[in-house]
Amino acid sequence: MVSVVCGLIYGLIAGTFSGDTQLWAAPIKIAGGLLLSALICLPSLYILSCLSGSQARLGEVSGLVAGFLLLMTILLIGFAPVAWVFFQSTESVAAMGALHLAFWFIATCFGLRFLSAAFAHYNQSGDGLKVWIVILLLVMLQMTTALRPIIGTADTFLPTEKKFFVSHWVDCLKTAK
User: Fold this and answer.
1) How far is CA 113 from CA 87, 133, 177, in A?
2) Of 29, 50, 69, 93, which sees the most CB atoms within 10 A?
3) Is residue 7 within 8 Å of 76, Cβ to Cβ?
4) CA 125 to CA 148: how far, in whole Å?
5) What digits encode the pLDDT tens for the residues 96-129?
């Protein structure tokens, strides 16, 4: 629950860049996207951890993923004042998107470090966790496109077209020029 609240707070700060409907939409998209990504990837983490020799139960793996999300969202709140400073000095959606991705990447790295240390406690070999990390990163990156716009404005809450995150980002960079 605390990670959801932290995600909502960070989303509110992100929503101040565009204002209007993004003040309520960005918090929902950020908190929901992080939670949904974790829930989507949880079964594969449990299966891969079992295949890698972990003795962790599903409840314990769920708790570790919750800890991962909590660390991530606490770090994002720590970055929120920095994001706010940039909101005040630029109107570039591409620049703000890149800044948020950088913050997300840093927070994710620390969260994954926590998760790796926790699974080492369960004597799990790192191969299953490494595969899962790639899966999680791809899912989280795709969520940035599936829930767009998080930064910027749109006529609808969710996009009407389907896109792969790389295609979306390339399109955004082309229109930013």
Assistant:
1) 29, 11, 36
2) 29
3) yes
4) 36
5) 888 999 999 999 999 999 998 888 877 666 778 8
Locate tokens 């020799």: which residue? 53
d(CA 133, CA 62): 15
Compute CA distances 5 → 10, 34, 110, 125, whole Å.
Answer: 9, 12, 19, 33
